[in-house]
Design goal:
This protein has helices at about 5-60, 60-80, 85-120, 125-155, 160-185, 190-215, 225-260, 265-300, 305-330, 330-340, 345-375, 380-390, 390-400, 405-430, 435-465, 470-490, 495-510. By secondary structure, it is an all-alpha fold.
Length: about 500
């Protein structure tokens, strides 16, 4: 193994550690804030906050289309080491995001405002509060859009410790929001939107100050490089369909649930998304840590190292998601009842289906890192877009026919699996060193076998024991034990397994 590869691996390990520190603290505090916010706002106001956010997210797809391009191009230029090109790339992407923010403002204050006031199902007497939430969300979105290049710069430079510190501070400030929400005398939903906006603005300001002081390329200068603009838009242009489809399966479904079932089920979906985001953060930390290295290794032509990193990252992500998801899925009612004290209807089934979605997604996310590194996203965007966007007509027809509310979540999980399989095929056509059958044999099939082998005994335990702490603890122990043994013995490559054993021996011997 080369010195550069060893250094990169150490950096990935260190960055992952920082991200996990951030996640554990954020998760612990989020469990507290989530319970208090639901109880303080009530189910209806919690649902209003979720569905209004869905409208903002639906029109924010324009920004989403640029996130992947911004991150890819800044990381790619950093890997090449061309400082002038890096500065021009950052400034160009920031100019684009400023224009996007202005476009979004116009759309949201016209079409979006009309949707909130005339299409959403809002409880009587809460329209003014919903509009206040909407206006503060618009301003937050505009600031967030122009923040994208700065966040991409922090990740590209692999400053995950700073990323973690900012996120921990953000979570701590949310505790302050909860305190002020409890003692405040004004309308709780309006107060919550004001306080959330203030925290968001403060965090954006701190991020930008750090970037400008530490990364010279983030000092903005206006530039209109047509060739660079053409390259960026060519990349992001093909990403539009895929991101519109992602919006459809998220915010689009939120709006359909609101139209057919009201804000109570929006609250259930909001709770499900909160739980899944917390669990998905575990695998997301690994994905975030390896993404810059995958793109940089592609830029340097180190394809074999990139493939190895992709395989190891996928196995680690999937094993971790298996450890977390299987006990949670089997004991979801008990866990939600412990956390919230009140479990809205459909919250359990929504959470389990979104968890299934996330398990499949952790594999697809690392695959897409390679696709983005190549810049060849036309086929993947078209394929995924066509598969994902079908959730809207299918859900609408299903709801009209009286289908249950969980239908779109089930379809989304199936569609993501199908899209991920297509992406794996495209990835292997872009990288000559990879074969489709080889990747399925060594990465995909072992992952799903792991999930099945671990899931069966936990399912049997769920069938023969009563709900309670003992069953939850046994589910966790069985899952962690089986996942650890199977992953170490069969999924981890021999070279890495031997290194881990030697490291453990060295630590043990040094202590004796």
């Amino acid at each position: 193994m080369s010195q550069n590869t060893q250094t990169s691996n150490k950096r990935i390990a260190k960055n992952t550690m920082y991200l996990y520190l951030r996640m554990f603290i954020s998760l612990a505090l989020s469990l507290v804030t989530g319970r208090v916010v639901l109880r303080t706002l009530g189910v209806d106001d919690y649902g209003i906050n979720a569905v209004v956010g869905g409208v903002i997210g639906m029109f924010g797809v324009i920004q989403v289309c640029m996130i992947g391009a911004t991150s890819r191009f800044i990381t790619f230029e950093l890997g090449r080491g061309d400082e002038k090109r890096l500065k021009d790339t950052f400034s160009t992407t920031l100019t684009i995001h400023i224009v996007i923010a202005l476009i979004l403002f116009v759309i949201l204050e016209t079409v979006g405002l009309w949707m909130v006031n005339y299409k959403l199902v809002i409880p009587e007497g809460r329209m003014f509060a919903a509009n206040c939430v909407y206006q503060f969300s618009i301003i937050s979105l505009m600031l967030g859009v122009t923040q994208t290049p700065y966040s991409s710069a922090i990740v590209a430079h692999e400053k995950m410790d700073i990323y973690a510190y900012f996120d921990i501070l953000n979570t701590v400030l949310k505790l302050v929001i909860i305190y002020l929400l409890l003692i405040g005398n004004m309308d709780k939903l309006i107060l919550y939107s004001i306080l959330t906006f203030c925290v968001s603005t403060l965090m954006i300001a701190l991020n930008r100050i750090y970037c400008v002081r530490h990364f010279p390329e983030t000092r903005y200068h206006f530039i209109w490089d047509k060739s660079l603009l053409k390259t960026i838009f060519a990349f992001s242009g093909w990403d539009i369909l895929g991101n519109v489809a992602v919006m459809a399966r998220g915010e689009g479904v939120t709006l359909l649930i609101n139209m057919f079932f009201g804000t109570a089920l929006n609250a259930a979906a909001g709770i499900a998304n909160t739980v899944t985001s917390a669990v998905g953060g575990f695998s997301g930390n690994i994905i975030m840590a390896v993404k810059p290295q995958i793109i940089k290794r592609y830029a340097d032509g180190e394809y074999n190292a990139m493939i190895k990193l992709t395989h190891e990252g996928t196995i680690l992500c999937f094993a971790l998601m298996t450890c977390l998801s299987i006990p949670l899925m089997s004991e979801i009612h008990f866990v939600l009842n412990l956390w919230l004290g009140m479990v809205p209807d459909y919250a359990c089934i929504f959470t389990n289906l979104i968890l299934l979605f996330s398990i499949i997604g952790c594999m697809g996310s690392i695959v897409m890192n390679i696709v983005h590194a190549t810049g060849k996203i036309k086929k993947t965007s078209l394929t995924n877009g066509c598969i994902y966007i079908m959730v809207l007509p299918i859900t609408y027809i299903a709801y009209k026919c009286g289908a249950p509310a969980w239908v779109p979540f089930a379809y989304n999980a199936f569609a993501l699996f199908l899209g991920t399989m297509c992406n794996i095929y495209y990835m292997t056509t872009y990288i000559s060193n990879l074969s489709t059958m080889g990747y399925f044999k060594h990465t995909v099939v072992p992952c799903f076998l792991l999930f099945a082998v671990v899931g069966i005994p936990v399912l049997l335990l769920h069938s023969y024991m009563e709900e309670g702490w003992l069953r939850l603890i046994l589910s966790i122990v069985i899952t962690v034990f089986l996942t650890g043994i199977i992953s170490f013995k069969f999924l981890i490559e021999k070279e890495l397994r031997e290194k881990m054993i030697n490291k453990i021996k060295e630590k043990f011997i040094s202590r004796r």
